[in-house]
Design goal:
The protein is an alpha+beta fold. 38% of the residues lie in helices and 22% in strands. The protein contains eight helices and ten strands. It has helices spanning 8-18, 22-29, 33-41, 48-60, 86-100, 112-119, 125-133, 197-211, and strands spanning 63-66, 70-73, 77-81, 104-109, 138-144, 156-161, 169-174, 177-182, 191-195, 215-216. The strands form two sheets. Strands 3-9-8-7-4-5-6-10 form an eight-stranded mixed beta sheet, sandwiched between helices. A two-stranded antiparallel sheet has the order 1-2.
């Protein structure tokens, strides 16, 4: 992809579309707030690496820059992972997306069996691998009351909730993406991943409304229970 220089007008227009502050853009692009302010004032011209980081942050948020001096929302991107390796494809996408953008993964699973299908049986070793890969990542997982409580930690928290609150479709939300995983008996589930900032935020709101009603699982020794939703 050819990355063309960005104007101050484009950067400000992109922030307006996303309703982002300068601080939020700086965080998403891994730049200083001072750099964003100088760019928007026209006091400096972005270097190629700075431009790339802003492009990446805006495109991850669902925007695209157009010639000569515009910006617009992209159509939603949809990917389907199916067959052998579908769960590994999902985890690889989670790994890459949370490394670049919002460092949070939230999960709603209809039952422990559905969670283990994606994340490995036992202590969900694939979730532990994600945490080791990204030191900034945190994971919150909501399960039904079926099965044994799961061991939690400050970065990997489990809560349980009545089955009446959870649909038959498990979902994962990370960055500006959400993944839908229907409950079925297939060894390799069909996973649909949609890239949409607005819908993923809607799933987050739904998740935290259930999270507040849920019961925390037990923690590792000497750790305090964190019952906040954030």
């Amino acid at each position: 992809m050819i990355i063309r220089p960005l104007s101050a007008r484009q950067i400000k227009a992109a922030r307006a579309l996303l309703d982002w502050s300068q601080e939020e853009l700086a965080y998403a692009a891994q730049l200083s707030i001072a750099t964003i302010r100088k760019l928007e004032l026209g006091h400096i011209s972005p270097r190629s690496e700075t431009t790339r980081l802003i492009y990446q942050a805006m495109e991850d948020a669902g925007l695209e820059f157009i010639d000569p001096d515009g910006v617009r929302r992209k159509l939603e991107d949809i990917a389907v992972f199916h067959g052998v390796g579908s769960t590994d494809q999902l985890l690889d996408d989670i790994k890459e997306t949370t490394r670049q953008a919002r460092h949070e993964l939230i999960i709603v699973a209809n039952c422990l069996e559905e969670l283990e299908k994606i994340c490995g049986a036992g202590d969900c070793p694939k979730l532990e691998a994600l945490l080791k890969y990204n030191d900034d990542l945190s994971i919150k997982c909501l399960l039904t009351e079926v099965g044994e409580p799961q061991l939690s930690s400050p970065r990997l928290q489990f809560r349980t909730i009545s089955k009446q609150y959870i649909d038959a479709v498990s979902f994962y939300v990370y960055g500006n993406k959400y993944a839908l995983i229907p409950t079925d008996k297939e060894i390799w589930p069909k996973i649909t991943v949609v890239k949409s900032r607005s819908v993923s935020e809607g799933f987050r709101r739904q998740f935290f409304s259930m999270w507040e009603k849920a019961t925390p699982s037990y923690l590792a020794p000497n750790e305090k229970v964190n019952i906040s939703a954030g």
